Amino acid sequence: MSASKLPVFEVSLYVLVWTASICYSSYNVYLAGKLFDHTAIGDDFSDNWYGYKKDMADYEWTTWLPFLLYTMPAWVAAHIALTEVTRWISPQGVPGAHSLITLLFIIVHFGPACALFAFTQVVVYYTILRLKSVALVWLFGIPFLLLSCFGLQEMWEYTGKSDQQFTMMVVSTTWLNLHCTSFSLEMLASARSNTSGRRMFYDLLGYSLYFPTYFLGPFIIYTNFGPYMYRPFKRWTSERVCTFALSLLRFLFWAAVTEASLYFLYIHALQYHMTTVARLG
Questions:
Q1: β-bridge mates for residue 53, sequence order
Q2: In this structure, are 205 and 249 located in the same domain?
Q3: In this predicted structure, what is the pLDDT of residue 276?
Q4: Nearest to 108 by CA among 148, 65, 64, 161
Q5: Structure confidence at residue 5 as a pLDDT band (50, 70, 90)
Q6: 37, 71, 141 from 62: Cα distances, Å
Q7: 9: in domain
Q8: Domain span at 157
Q9: Of the given ranges (13-22, 36-45, 113-122), which has the lowest mean pLDDT?
Q10: Residue 270 and residue 205 share a domain
């Protein structure tokens, strides 16, 4: 069924109303930010930047942005290089390349114990797949989540790592749990549960330890992810390089816009200061 086509005038009107609404709302949030008494507020704002203070109340943003900009690029480059070389030699080895980079990253930044925990989780879910038990998938999912959030915290106190690294470790292990659970349920719900043991283990390994989505997602079900994992090597033409570069520039542009907006729109700080919100009337 084809989509209905709206008149150009109507679409233009919607765009105009939407743009005006966003601008009006943003301006009012900006005005609300002027009500803050920065001298009486502790860690919610950073130092001045041309007379403006930065909203630091969004802990996730202040944790993940430096991670994305300064920690991940070299590892992403290594992931792309190793995966492409492996794909050129033999696409069947791509899952191994996926997992190798991720496990090395975990060892370097979180420690060998965390890497062992991640690999053990994959092995346990593979064993459950061989047993073909949906109940065991859910039964082991909860303990792994508890270990990720509480068990690893006890161990973390002896590593000397920062709180930001602990946050990244917890988030990534819960993402791993989601991927393992989803993969297992998909396999058990389809005829693919009869796949050979080695191939199934490789599929689970390459899917759950895929570096670009291991820490921040997005979540992709294996049905959509799997067909691309073993695809043949494709030459890096000028068109492909340009597409990759444009996607990267688009990400950097919106990251810069978001970062700059924190100096003018105190959206997150307003959530934690209800007295200031109440003064808006």
A1: 48
A2: no
A3: 75
A4: 161
A5: confident
A6: 22, 14, 30
A7: no
A8: 61-230
A9: 36-45
A10: no
In this predicted structure, which of 59-63, 158-162, 254-258 has the lowest mean pLDDT?
158-162
Residue 55 falls inside a structural domain: no
**What confidence tier does 70 reach under pLDDT thresholds 50, 70, 90?**
confident
Shared-domain flag, residues 137 and 220: yes
CA-CA-CA-CA dihedral for 99, 177, 169, 61, to nearest 10: 110
Among the listed ranges 21-25, 166-170, 245-249, which one has the minimum average pLDDT value? 166-170
Statement to judge: residues 221 and 203 lie in one domain:
yes
> How far is 36 from 264, CA to CA, in rounded Å?
12
Q: Cα separation of 51 and 188, whole Å?
A: 58
3 in a structural domain = no
Pair (106, 201) in one structural domain: yes
Q: Number of structural domains, the chain?
A: 2
Place of tokens 């599929």: 203
Whether the upstream peptide bond of residue 218 has omega within 30° of 0, thus cis, is yes
Q: What is the pLDDT of residue 78?
A: 95
In this structure, what are the phi and psi dihedrals at residue 237, rounded to the nearest 5 degrees? -80, 170
Same domain, 149 and 256: no
Q: State yes or no: pLDDT of 100 exceeds 80.
A: yes
What would the DSSP string read from start to end of 139-203?
A: HHHHHHHHIIIIIHHHHHTTTT--HHHHHHHHHHHHHHHHHHHHHHHHHHTSGGGGS-HHHHHHH
**Residues 177, 196: one domain?**
yes
- If asked whether residues 73 and 181 sit together in one domain, one would say yes
Average pLDDT of the chain to the nearest whole number: 86
